[in-house]
Amino acid sequence: MSGTPERSTRDAEEQHATNRGTPYAPHTDVEVDAMLESIGAGDIDALFDIPDSVQFDGELAISGASEQAVIRRLTETLAQNADDTEFLGRGHYSHYVPSIVDHLSFRSEFITSYTQYQPEITQGFLQALFEYQSLLVELTGLEVANCSMYDAATALGEAATLAARVRGTSGSRVLVPDYVRAERRAVLENYVTGVGLVVEEFPTEDGVTTPEAVGRVLDDDVVMVYVESPTTEGIIEEHLAEIGDLVAERDALFCLGSDPVALALLRSPASLGVDIVTGDASVLGLSASYGMGLGLFACREEYLRQVPGRLIGASEDADGNRAFTLTLQTREQHIRRERATSNICTNQAWIALRAAIHAASLGPSGLVSLAKRCHALAERTAARLDEIDGVSAPVHDRYHFREFAARTDGDARAIGAAMRDDGFAVHVLDGETIQICVTDVNEHRVDEFVRSLEEATH
Amino acid sequence: MTFTTSDGLLYAESHEWVDDRADVVRIGITDFAQDELGDIVFVELPAEGVALERGEPFAVVESIKAVSDIYAPVSGTVTAVNETVSDRPELVNEHPFERGWLIELETTDELGHLLEPDEYREQI
Amino acid sequence: MQRHTQAVWDDTESDGYEPLLSEKGLETAEVGETGLPDELTRDSLELPALSEPELARHYTRLSQMNYGIDSGPYPLGSCTMKYNPKFTEEIAGLSAASVHPDRDAESVQGTLEIYHELQGYLAEIGGMDAVSLQPPAGSAGEFAGILVAKAYHEANGEGDERTEVIVPTSAHGTNFASAALAGYDVVELPDDADGRVDLNALSAAVGDSTAALMLTNPNTLGLFERNIEEIAAMIHEAGGLLYYDGANLNALLGRARPGDMGFDIMHYNVHKTFATPHGGGGPGAGPIGVNEDLAPFLPTPQVREEDGAYELFEPARSVGKVHGAMGNWLVLLKAHAYISRLGGAGLRDASAKAVLNANYLASQIDLEIPFGPFHHEFVASAGEQDAADFAKRMLDYGVHPPTTKWPEIVSEALMTEPTEAESKKTLEQVADAFDAVRGDAESSDSSSPERIAAGRIDQTSAARTPRLSWQRIHEE
């Protein structure tokens, strides 16, 4: 840790600091003395009721520094990251976030508030979250959306536990396709620990889920079937309606992983028999952010009492005006404790606010054109890569969204490394497959990307 | 605070009432119980035909601030549920002994363990 | 005496305040030609369409009908609503801070260095041997920590018999829910007459089936569990593990460390203790720390340093994952910035001032505070008044109210945590608000609040007739 605090005559911290104290407490020495006198304590130490045997008598080995020094040091540290152009997706996406999103979401009344336990004084955030829920209701066609889970993986986990509660069973199965990311599946496995569900994988055919493959593993002990569209490999599923029927016949729940940009183009999940939609809603409002995410969760109204997380509802205030409030809180941990629908308390509300502002800024036409572009870019880029000798793309002759896999005659790992030297990051899936994600954020570099791949291949 | 009790009924210590004056027994929660819960917003009732053991939770009553299980005061088979309170849970607050009833049971169970109205009044 | 009047935008046409986005302009976009089969696509999409100036005004008005730490004091007990330094946002906003989670380790050394350093900072602060930054919030940390405990018992061949997690009555609801999510039966532990762990009850509860005891220290009444070493010994002798809920760590920074008290596992709420903004309910972050015996069970991946290079690795017996990537990275980055700004001495001072503030505020208000000595927060009783009504009346006095009606061990509880960020003068204003509301007959009716954007909101009809989207409102 770099170290000594920088001296500056204008440093407010120095005026307040006593013995390098926190710069974010306003006390002067005189005030501290007066306060102690009112309390009737000799010094601050006397206020602590901690046995000597467990007191920490050293000083924490962490050095402090001025604001300027901390910013400089962390900026320099982050600058060690290679400034690569990312052609990466597989469940984590970036789209251009308009400037207005930062400016409005960073208003301190929003970002420095907390959960709306006192709704009268936090109407603004409540309404923004209500609008976010409504956006998801429109995109999914499902009647209920909560105002966030942590990320796509935990939302999937929560969907499975909801399915177990709805079906009133344990020890049953959740079916997932073979393309699901290992990370997502690992989270799902942990979430179903307590209800004793088993996660079972079924094979896909040429990149898509088929009714036959689902039918082969489906039985009465299945509580939920999960598929993604677009899939982790960027493929748009083609048989969802038939799968929805199959799943419904078995009285299981049908869960679809998707995202708000894809849903602006794709057929409404509710009309396909989907019961729950999960996914990452931070494709709006947030850059990749090392996978931070915003868990999307929407479902049919019949499961309302089983929904995890927070819900905002409209009501009326004493003046008869429409007003918003957290509602149906008896589902939640602070009231129902071990019988709650979820343990979630703090969620991703501020990211939901950002996603809502971003969506409103695009409007329906902007959202639809962004989605159409994500489809067209993937198809066009795949076609261009296919022209390279030694590359065939896409691997699956399917419809793609944002991304696609490509097969390389040469060693894909070496190709990935060579491209990294050119400043391009791609997924290397195995010795002969790479995956490429193209959005509005990196499309201006597609020409160079294609050249780099061409050189790396030869 | 005084609570109403209904004289023709029997009571369980867990604040359910039993009306055994017909072929089937009718069951609900007492005035005291609804007041403890506050404004009731949701009632989840069992399906008809379900067999209940005495002491088994058979319904969930939810208010703004709490969720309570309602326990079967006697064993038996559910012959009817009051669908009206599913749509209008406030009836349990407003008329706990009448229109706010919850279920009807066909029972061969003993009723000796239940409290007479004055015994129940003592308890609350 | 300070009064507060919140801005309000009242719209007579919608019978509400600021109209909904959908009331300001819904538009239907036709999807048209896509190059995809029709059966795969939607025909149209109906969403609000507003110009940027209209959007700016909509959200600005909403923000004016919202209250944050920068608006005024926010002594919401158990939530540690301390001031959020602004400079940390500058670092979180750097484009280099936003990398894709699948980047190769060698190309994101800067990110991994900070990540690794924060693991170390938190281990030092908690007296723990190893830290995972993955859990995205406090309760996710609890869940991860209990999964670690479960994996540890399974590795010892005791997975089947250790089926219980003990949780005190006064604990956060998340403790119960997280233990249940991990598949445990929860055993509730009553408090003794002093509001602390009842050792006799604990002795009766602990046994061969105990997997863990979850404790908050200081507890939710602000009281330090003075018998902590004895408690730890009891749990450890029975073969169980001791879990520390870090919600109240702001009372102890640099003064006492959970690891030194005998805790095996803990979570940190960085949005509370380390000043990252609460964001209207999140995102936060809930890293966990463990002792060296439990380090092999931590979530994957962990970050380590080898010869100056940082790499990801999977702990030998990892419980797997509780988040799809690396947790709430941007929140963690801000926490790192805050910790390295204050340093050990600054953190210790933050706790000192937080405890001073709670004690000073308590000395200035005329309500019963049944339990003590408390640290960074106290629980007062509203006495004959209803705590929820008491809180509503406080809204008119420029104070976000305390947490109400909890913990239930105090009747009509007002759980109050001023944090170190309030000045003596502000604390006196908060005390004035308490005093103004105390004995105010009107505070028991629904006329309050009067000077806030909305009047008293009907919770009952919100729950009886759920209206959770603008679609539902427009149908009516």
Characteristics:
heterotrimer; A: 458 residues; alpha/beta; seven-stranded mixed β-sheet; four-stranded antiparallel β-sheet; 14 helices; 36% helix; C: 476 residues; three-stranded antiparallel β-sheet; 34% helix; 13% strand
Itemize the secondary structure elements and their pairings.
The complex is a heterotrimer of chains A (458), B (124) and C (476).
Chain A: H1 12-16, H2 29-39, H3 67-78, E1 85-86, H4 99-105, H5 108-111, H6 123-140, E2 144-145, H7 152-167, E3 173-177, H8 182-191, E4 198-202, H9 211-217, E5 222-228, H10 240-249, E6 253-258, E7 276-280, E8 295-299, E9 311-316, E10 322-327, H11 333-336, H12 349-386, E11 391-392, E12 403-408, H13 412-421, E13 424-425, E14 427-430, E15 433-437, H14 446-457
Parallel strand pairs in A: 1-13, 3-4, 3-5, 5-6, 6-7
Antiparallel strand pairs in A: 2-8, 7-8, 9-10, 11-12, 12-15, 14-15
Chain B: E1 10-11, E2 16-19, E3 25-29, H1 31-37, E4 40-44, E5 51-52, E6 57-63, E7 67-71, E8 76-81, H2 83-87, H3 90-94, E9 103-106, H4 117-123
Antiparallel strand pairs in B: 1-2, 2-3, 3-9, 4-6, 5-8, 6-7, 8-9
Chain C: H1 21-24, E1 26-30, E2 44-48, H2 52-64, H3 87-92, H4 109-126, E3 130-132, H5 138-155, E4 164-168, H6 173-181, E5 185-189, H7 199-205, E6 210-216, H8 228-237, E7 241-245, H9 258-261, E8 265-267, H10 270-273, E9 288-290, E10 302-306, E11 309-313, H11 329-364, E12 378-381, H12 387-394, E13 403-404, E14 413-416, H13 424-437, H14 459-464, H15 470-475
Parallel strand pairs in C: 4-5, 4-6, 6-7, 7-8
Antiparallel strand pairs in C: 1-2, 3-9, 8-9, 10-11, 12-14, 13-14
Helix pairs in contact in C: 4-11, 5-6, 11-13
User: What is the quaternary state of this protein?
Assistant: heterotrimer
Rounded mean pLDDT score of chain B: 93
> What can be said about the biggest beta sheet of chain B?
6 strands, antiparallel
Euclidean distance between termini CA atoms of chain A: 45 Å
Classification by helices and strands of chain B: alpha+beta
Instruction: Kindly report the spatial arrangement of strands forming the biggest sheet of chain A.
Output: 2-8-7-6-5-3-4
Largest interface: A-C, 187 and 203 residues
Percentage of β-strand residues of chain A: 5-15%
> Given the structure, what is the number of helices of chain A?
14
Number of beta strands of chain B: 9
The side-by-side strand order for the widest beta sheet of chain B comes to 1-2-3-9-8-5
- Unreliable stretches of chain A (pLDDT < 50, length at least 5) are 1-19
Rg over C-alpha atoms of chain A, rounded to the nearest angstrom: 26 Å
